[in-house]
User: What shape does this take?
Amino acid sequence: MSSKHRFSFELFPPRTPEGIAKLQSVTGQLAAVRPDFFSITHGAGGSDQEGTYETLLTVVEHTGVEVAPHMTCVGSTRATIAAHLDRYREAGVKRIVVLRGDLPATALSSAAPAEFHYASDLVSFIRETRGDAFKIEVAAYPEMHPQAVSPSADFEYFRRKVEAGADAVLTQLFYNADAYFDFMERCDKAGIRIPIVPGIMPIAGFSNIVRFCAGCGADLPRWVRLRLEELENDRPALVDFGLSVVTRLCETLLHNGAPGLHFYTINQAGPTLRLWNNLGLKGEETGSRE
Ligand SMILES: Cc1cc2nc3c(=O)[nH]c(=O)nc-3n(C[C@H](O)[C@H](O)[C@H](O)COP(=O)(O)OP(=O)(O)OC[C@H]3O[C@@H](n4cnc5c(N)ncnc54)[C@H](O)[C@@H]3O)c2cc1C
Assistant: This one.
């Protein structure tokens, strides 16, 4: 692994005083390994761009590490997006993760995308109104977005999203390295040369990981699911097994061309740092390299 890899940690805005207090300790531990940036999610339904903003300010203040807020079409208008972009610019933000957003259960309610339907619309709007003021990261789904009509249609929309002005890509979590390599081949054939950074979810529990995978359409290999199920009541053994599965996945990805890793931390330092240490990333020089 060379110093050209990039590493980022995803956080979500905590909703309780305990969550806020815990986040400060978590980001302190994660910042110690010098990631390139933290990203901060923005919940579906337009409910917490305020939470994203406040979390961003706290993380910058406590860690000094670059922070990239997520922005979504869901619940947004041109006016609200413009106002958030102004505020982020003032806060020194240089990078934004641009998404459609998870559709709320009441997808046909007023919270559903209104002025922006797809992430590509939002990417175009930011480029048209702000030029190159922000680096833009978008999402990709090596195993196909769960609502897509077909892998080829999904890829074609992804290609258009990149053409609209994305600088880099963060993938949905996956546990089949071949799905990522197949996606990279398709990108190569389509002339897409920007970094496609695998999204990595550490495995720290059986029911959680099954739920996450079901929610986002990721395939949890049968043998992994069976082993996790068997170890469900033996937490140390389950954690060890999950760590070995995800370590091997990360090693395979990094040794075969992945430009870095984006860790879904779920606001916990332990699982991500255990992976980090297992991968021998400690001490690897990081720093923005795009
Ligand atoms: C790294 C990462 C971070 C995330 N962070 C958040 C977050 O902070 N908040 C949140 O709510 N969700 C988040 N999500 C989830 C994401 O919002 C959902 O997966 C959402 O359903 C799709 O978002 P997208 O930006 O990929 O959508 P898009 O790229 O807009 O694609 C959505 C669907 O529409 C299809 N499509 C795209 N363009 C068109 C078109 N022109 N015509 C017809 N169909 C089209 C695609 O094939 C796909 O099925 C994240 C996902 C990832 C991978």
In short: The pocket of flavin-adenine dinucleotide is lined by residues 41-42, 44, 70, 72, 97, 99-102, 118-120, 139, 145, 147-148, 154, 157, 161, 170, 172, 199 (CB under 6 Å). Residues 13 and 218 are 24 Å apart (CA to CA).
